[in-house]
Amino acid sequence: MAKKSVFIIGGGPAGYVSAIKAAQLGFEVTIAEKNSFGGTCLNRGCIPMKALLHITSFLDKNYRRMGINFDNLTYDLDKFRAWKDQAVKKAVKGVEILLKKNNVNIAKGEAFLLGENKVKVNESIYEPDHIILAMGSEPNIPSFIKKTEYIWTSDDALELKEVPNRLLIIGGGIIGVETATLYNRLGSEVTIFDMLENVGGVGLDKEIANELKKQINGNGIKTILGNKIDKIDGNKISVGDNIYEGDRILLAMGRKSNLNSNISEVGIITNKNKIQVNNYYETNLRSIFAIGDLIDGPMLAHKASNDGCKLISYLAKISIESYDIPSVIYTHPEIASVGLSEEAARKKYDDIKMSRFPISANARANCTKELKGMVKLITVNNRIIGVHLFGDNASEMIWSFSYFINKGIDINEMNGIVFPHPTYSEAIGEAILGVSDSMIHI
Ligand SMILES: Cc1cc2nc3c(=O)[nH]c(=O)nc-3n(C[C@H](O)[C@H](O)[C@H](O)COP(=O)(O)OP(=O)(O)OC[C@H]3O[C@@H](n4cnc5c(N)ncnc54)[C@H](O)[C@@H]3O)c2cc1C
After folding, report:
1. 154 in ligand 1 pocket by Cβ < 6 Å?
2. Does some domain include residue 442?
């Protein structure tokens, strides 16, 4: 029997993971990419940002209190840029190698839909059984803002061409606070503006958001919250009667989906800048699917890849479980969450229970003196419904909670888990004990 064919538009984490998965499950796969494989994540998002946050973290450490003297500490911006570029290059090359290894056909260029089963790239026409839209997103520049030399998007900030003396950031969500952390370390005077009362973005647990605000303020990042920007004029921002002047203004007010590729011409339905899909990622046109940043849900790389895996499993008629998507903010300390915030949990349930363990009481934190933060578990009837980690290495410890939450594991079944000593993860063990009021180290 002839193989079913899949054509994927976009080679970001949604598209390239779908391509590999589909090839592994026996589909004939072609993927179109108009720029570099890896999309936003590898080229202009997760990877360059985390490479730069890593390298600049050494500027942030208080070595003196450890007895190491770094008087006259300097840095070389060109080397930082090269470090980041190397990380991007290696990641992109890796994706190209994986696609080839899995015999995925590559169509280099911009793809356009010509109909329900027809796509064009350059002069070639493809007629696949299924089309997957994975064109991702780009920085949102609202129509009332003109892109002048003063205006930066996250793409400009990650180029690392210069370190502005004064950086004004509009938007205190994940991209806003991560970029603020980066340029604060590099020596910019950074101010974040947000119409919300908190930083960290919509949906972040309020208590954790307050801790994050305290932490970044303590590092010297200013925050002006709870007010809308009235005007941007050149390098100045007006908020009420106050005018703030910067050398660069970063727009970090969300991203907009790439609704290109002729999707409206072929009649695909969109809503509020997102492609509408059902639970199986099907658009209103039966053979066309959409995943990743193009559809509703958190705009995160692992969510985009997970969409791809779930969709390909559906096309291959293989069932696969769904889990809550964790989210991380790579500030110092890091924040990692999954499930409900306290506010959302209170709205949904009458009887929630909270268990908090402060990182300051953790043995590993006592060695590193990274004492800020907490583990916060939210439970209902002994089952975890929300987890919020604020502390060093939080990003590495959150994953298992998607499983515990979605499987509805009873907290008593977790009481016997042994956490190695001394690790930050012991704070999680204590918080688990805290649900039955039996913490040991506090
Ligand atoms: C600064 C920043 C930091 C981030 N950090 C994180 C993080 O730490 N963790 C995390 O999970 N997420 C992070 N993200 C978000 C993450 O990058 C995105 O959610 C993810 O890349 C979305 O994947 P995608 O495949 O849907 O889209 P994209 O990655 O945007 O990929 C879409 C691809 O489609 C291509 N394309 C578009 N139209 C066409 C066409 N017509 N023909 C051919 N190709 C086309 C584009 O060139 C692009 O390569 C960050 C984003 C930014 C901006």
Report:
1. yes
2. no
Give the residue whose CA is nearest to atom 7 of ligand 1: 46
Q: Mark whether 14 and 132 lie in a shared domain.
A: yes
Atom of ligand 1 nearest to the CA of 39: 49
Segment 125-152 shows an average pLDDT of: 96
In tens, the pLDDT along 255-304 reads: 999 999 999 999 999 999 999 999 999 999 999 999 999 999 999 999 99
Residue 13 in contact with ligand 1 by CB distance below 6 A: yes
Token look-up 């268990």 returns 355
Residue 65 lies in a domain: yes
Q: What is the reported pLDDT for 240?
A: 92
> Closest ligand 1 atom to the C-alpha of 14?
25
Tokens 């916060």, located at residue? 376
Domain assignment of residue 199, given as a range: 151-253
> Does the model's pTM come out above 0.85?
yes
Pair 249, 260 in one domain: no
Beta strand pairing status for 383-391 and 334-339? antiparallel
Which residue numbers are catalytic?
A: 421
* Listed residue (14, 16, 23, 17) closest to 6, CA to CA: 23
Same domain, 349 and 402: yes
Dist. CA 14 → ligand 1 center (Å): 8
The verdict on the CB of residue 299 being under 6 Å from ligand 1 is yes
pLDDT band (50, 70, 90) for residue 60: confident
- What's the gap between Cα 60 and its chain centre? 22
Whole-angstrom distance, CA of residue 330 vs CA of residue 299: 15
235 and 331, same domain (yes or no): no
Number of domains in the chain: 3
Distance separating alpha carbons of residues 379 and 411, to the nearest angstrom: 9
Atom from ligand 1 closest to the CA of residue 330: 8
Choose one of 199, 229, 253: the last residue of a domain. 253
State if residue 42 touches ligand 1 by the CB under 6 angstroms criterion.
Answer: no
